[in-house]
Design a protein that fits this description.
One of its GO terms (biological process) is L-leucine biosynthetic process. One of its GO terms (molecular function) is 2-isopropylmalate synthase activity. Keywords: Acyltransferase, Amino-acid biosynthesis, Branched-chain amino acid biosynthesis, Cytoplasm, Leucine biosynthesis, Manganese, Metal-binding, Transferase. It catalyses: 3-methyl-2-oxobutanoate + acetyl-CoA + H2O = (2S)-2-isopropylmalate + CoA + H(+). This is 2-isopropylmalate synthase. It is a single chain. This protein is of the alpha/beta class. It folds into four domains: 275 residues, TIM Barrel (Alpha-Beta Barrel), CATH 3.20.20; 30 residues, no CATH class; 48 residues; 116 residues, 2-Layer Sandwich (Double Stranded RNA Binding Domain). It is 39% helix and 20% strand. Strands 1, 2, 3, 4, 5, 6, 7, 8 and 9 form a nine-stranded parallel β-sheet that branches. Helix 1 links the parallel strand 1 and strand 2. Helix 7 packs parallel to helix 8. The radius of gyration is 25 Å and the shape is globular. The protein starts with a strand and ends in a 17-residue tail after the last helix. The mean pLDDT is 93. Bound molecules: 3-methyl-2-oxobutanoic acid and zinc ion (ZN). Zinc ion (ZN) binds next to loops.
């Protein structure tokens, strides 16, 4: 049985998802959870892209004890130098050098010949190897590169010292059979006097990322790259939890295993969902809310007789916990904090007081507080604007002309209140107009989604929004949780506006992807 390593790029490729802007603190918390999940290497960022990305790679390097930390670099010496500086404190540093190789990228983006690209690879992989023991090389858009040229590219990188060869399906173009054949061909034909580990890096544009990744494993890949929950630009990257669980369930077929600690899967997935502001679809494989519910009568009958009739993945395998310590109206602060610990929810000491008071308010309205409610309470942590204001309350009045007037109360840490009034054609519009008035900045609402945290009429509501800062073009995701759906929506919009205001005040940097910077200079 072969062991397949996992490289997680949630903090680099995953952060290229519109609206996802992890703070440095969030990135460190995510990296710690990824280490606990059994990830062998974390691609922590693209240090040359922005001071924030550099800082995140530095801090993650210091925080990791067993997991390797990698930085992305274009085939540019200053990018490799930035990786070297950012990864100075990493126990196991890695540098990931890439350049595009497909005809369309060569002609239109790079304006370079095949030979020129081979020279660039040789020069920069050699340079990276002078600074790092472990260098990964990626031919971007590999799956649209001529196969014989791809072999030359890979051989050049290997001869220059790369030990990991990553084959990106950058635009999610390939199919399982075709991708498997690429791996077979390269592994059979690349020559080296030392071990070379090949990895797939699949995007999901045609919905085949998991199948493609697994086929690469079947054909000899020794490492896989992807993100948690499959986040990433466009249709995203391969979801690592799907690959890990598929390897576990179909171990015999793939003849491969991984070091992923499967019962940390749900915790990992929920943390990414919380920090990315991207809800997990109910029908998502492995971690979706419906993955373990059996609606139809026939299924229920079978599952009750023997769960294996319809359930190939047990909830326990991926860490779905049963309510072992139910909370209610009479639960005190101690029981509440114990529950936060039991659910392994990361929280700061200063957050306990506001979280507990939210819990008490909820317990007044709901008899049974489930684990999902507690997770939602933590996920719904409110973001203050730079002046320390957050959402306080709202009141609505219906007018004779069918418009609605909203009064939104914003409150700061000293209890100072600011009231804003605005009209709208409906309740949401009125509330959002009032929030706009408070913030007085240019923001465009891109999406608004309502979800229920639990079953039942007494469920808390979760509203997720995406907004664009019209001045910078940055997109921010934010969510709000409340028993009242309109208040949840107000909190989400206030949180999103607070992020925009922080960006305008220079308190948070814009996340910069390698696609935002010139390819090769
Ligand atoms: O998708 C891609 O090509 C990438 C490379 C930088 C590896 O993310
Ligand atoms: Zn990618």
């Amino acid at each position: 049985m072969r062991k397949v390593e996992f490289l997680d790029t949630t903090l680099r490729d995953g952060e290229q998802t519109p609206g996802v802007n992890f703070s440095v603190k969030e990135k460190v918390a995510i990296a710690k959870q990824l280490e606990k999940w059994g990830i062998a290497s974390i691609e922590a960022g693209f240090p040359a892209a922005s001071p924030d990305s550099f800082e995140a790679v530095c801090q993650i390097s210091k925080a990791m004890t067993t997991t390797a930390v990698s930085g992305l670099a274009r085939s540019v010496k200053s990018d490799i130098d930035a990786c070297y500086e950012a990864l100075k404190d990493a126990k196991y540093p890695q540098c990931h050098v890439f350049i595009a190789t497909s005809p369309i990228h060569r002609e239109y983006k790079l304006k370079k010949t095949k030979e020129e690209i081979l020279d660039i690879i040789k020069e920069h992989v050699t340079y990276a190897r002078s600074k790092f023991d472990v260098v990964e090389f990626s031919p971007e858009d590999a799956t649209r590169t001529e196969l014989n040229y791809l072999l030359e590219v890979v051989q050049t990188a290997v001869d220059a010292g790369a030990t990991y060869i990553n084959i990106p399906d950058t635009v999610g173009f390939t199919t399982p059979e075709e991708f498997g054949n690429i791996f077979k061909y390269l592994i059979e034909n690349v020559t080296s006097d030392h071990e070379i580990i090949f990895s797939p890096h699949c995007h999901d544009d045609l919905g085949m990322a998991t199948a493609n990744t697994l086929e690469a494993i079947k054909n000899g890949a020794g490492r896989v790259e992807g993100t948690v929950n499959g986040i990433g630009e466009r249709a995203g990257n391969v979801a690592l939890e799907e690959v890990a669980v598929a390897l576990n369930i179909r171990e015999e077929y793939y003849q491969a295993t991984s070091d992923i600690v499967l019962n940390e899967t749900v915790n990992t997935s929920e943390l990414i969902s919380r920090f990315s502001g991207i809800p997990i679809p109910k029908n998502k494989a492995v971690v979706g809310g419906n993955a373990f519910s059996h609606e139809s009568g026939i299924h229920q009958d079978g599952v009750l007789k023997n769960p294996l009739t319809y359930e190939i993945i047990t909830p326990e395998l991926v860490g779905v916990k049963h309510n072992s310590l139910p909370l209610g109206k009479l639960s005190g602060r101690h029981a509440f904090v114990e529950k936060l610990k039991e659910l392994e929810l990361a929280f700061e000491e200063t957050e306990i007081k506001p979280l507990f008071s939210k819990f008490k308010k909820l317990a007044d309205k709901k008899t049974e507080i489930t684990d999902a409610d507690i997770r939602a309470l933590v996920a719904g942590t409110e973001i203050e604007n730079p002046e320390g204001f957050h959402f306080g309350d709202l009141k609505l009045k219906s007018n004779a002309d069918e418009t609605v007037t909203a009064e939104v109360i914003m409150v700061n840490a000293d209890g100072e209140e600011v009231e804003v009034l605005a009209d709208g054609k409906g309740s949401v519009e009125a509330v959002y107009n009032a929030v706009d008035k408070f913030f007085n900045q240019k923001v465009r609402l891109l999406s608004y989604t309502i979800d229920a945290v639990t079953d039942g009429i007494d469920s808390q509501a979760r509203v997720s929004v995406s907004v664009e800062n019209s001045d910078s073009g940055t997109i921010f995701n934010a969510s709000g949780i409340d028993f009242d759906v309109l208040k949840a929506g107000a909190i989400a919009y206030v949180n999103a506006n607070a992020l925009v205001q922080k960006e305008n005040a220079g308190e948070i940097g814009k996340s910069v992807s390698f696609r935002d910077v010139p390819t090769n200079d």
